[in-house]
Amino acid sequence: xxxxxxxxxxxxxxxxxxxxxxxxxxxxxxxxxxxxxxxxxxxxxxxxxxxxxxxxxxxxxxxxxxxxxxxxxxxxxxxxxxxxxxxxxxxxxxxxxxxxxxxxxxxxxxxxxxxxxxxxxxxxxxxxxxxxxxxxxxxxxxxxxxxxxxxxxxxxxxxxxxxxxxxxxxxxxxxxxxxxxxxxxxxxxxxxxxxxxxxxxxxxxxxxxxxxxxxxxxxxxxxxxxxxxxxxxxxxxxxxxxxxxxxxxxxxxxxxxxxxxxxxxxxxxxxxxxxxxx
Length: 278
Description:
By secondary structure, the chain is α/β, with parallel strands linked by helices. It has twelve helices and six strands.
């Protein structure tokens, strides 16, 4: 270990902001302790870059206090970040979502290594028959490895890790803040967001314009079934294929459909109607 003065080190933003910042009270307590007892723990550095101890370094800079450093070697900035997380995770009262967010920072590095391992081992050596069995929903081995390793880093299950990643991409800032504070759970917010996005997708489909095919054999009319008879001649239809709404409040639609079928179907024609159990 070496003694250093407060102006001799560099700050890398990815390392500095890897973990959530201390609260005002936590920072004040740390500062008071250093002012009273000095900087007792050495700062971990990689060459002249701070890896662990950013708050202590800032306080020592502010007050001109000496501190010790311990130099470590890392292959990359990602490796340094992973070490910093693994040696800090138990010191912070982080929510599961925060842990998952931090783990996601390592996804590019872990995915690259997983792919390299697969290539080094000769890739996917399953038989062509085995590959074809899972062709409908294949998941590359490296993707499974990456997901599990991220879950291990975060200290959560792989399914929870999937939900964290989904929320990190789709949740708004308000929901993320609640998750970070522990005011809501990953499962609850994931379910709420999935329900909301499904509803939005259904609404978008409803609002989408209907593309009418340019085909002389097709004639498309959009109308309530009670008004459909005005668009065609009596006894001119071979088949009516219908899927009316199922809830009880729509039972009157079946009356309209029956009247339309009586008017429009040819002799021997068929009404095919999908119904629920209301």
